[in-house]
Amino acid sequence: MTENKGQKTGAIMENEGLIHANDIERVLAIQADAKDDTDPKTSRLFGSILCDLNLLTPVENFRVLKQNKKLISLADRLVSENLLPAGRVAQLQARSAETGIPFLGLLLEENQVPKPVIQQLLLDLYRIPLRSISDIVFSDKKRETLSHIIPEDAAGRHQIIPLVLKEDTLLCGITDPDALMFIAELDKKYPQYRFTPVFVSFSGFSWFYKILYNKSVDSKKSEKKSEEPPLLSDIQVTICDPFQEKEKIQTLYQGYAQARQQMDHHNQQGREAQFLQFIQKQHQAVIEKYRCRAVTFFLEKQDTRIMIAAIPRTQEI
Fold first, then answer.
1. Is 60 exceeded by the pLDDT of residue 229?
2. DSSP-derived 3-state class of residue 299
3. How is residue 243 annotated by DSSP?
């Protein structure tokens, strides 16, 4: 039997330490059962089903699929479902690049596709709802906290806005799916919070941005995103056995050495072996402390230092 797309996606998720092999079989069974169902909602993607089963968060799903170039874009889905002609989609994409307004924002502004259809597409692809920002009540008491977690420059650059902080959950409005990569960053930087994303229109984002930061957003800032170097934690590896997965550790070391070089730190020769031993030791410590079966290592910048951070993966055994 040939390997289908679901199996390949499942293998990637399993390799990341996010799911078990039996989770793959469970999702494939759900997809197989749905083939004879006439309900269009049953044509869910593999990652979407994992999210529905609470085995994966939408942010984790997006991050892994993007890093492995397996994402299905909103533009592609519009064309494949004959909701918009390819030429019109290309025009919107060109306008987005020219104005700095995200593709989704222009799509909502054009009204060529009914809003309920767009809402369903976003759920199908990302498992994230589209919300009206007019439903959000701004709390001035939380202004300082919200603007600290997501400063105005980061909000404008990534087009993400902190909306409501209730206990330890922060509701974030995003205008483009790529902002989910930044939310993955925030999740590591602020482990005390749970970040819940919702899609919002660009006009709603701009309106709330002015309320929160007391200034208007510059949509052109989005053009600068491609000029910035990759975020440090984009360089990350998930390791189950550090003694068998030395290539992953080498990848992390190369990113570490490059980051140090960019900060004008001297890279000593022959540190690969020392780095390998360090990761092996830290992996064992995290496994024993959290009783997990895999550990994700990534890089963080703290002042003038490049630090190696680690988080346990999957539920407790």
1. no
2. strand
3. T
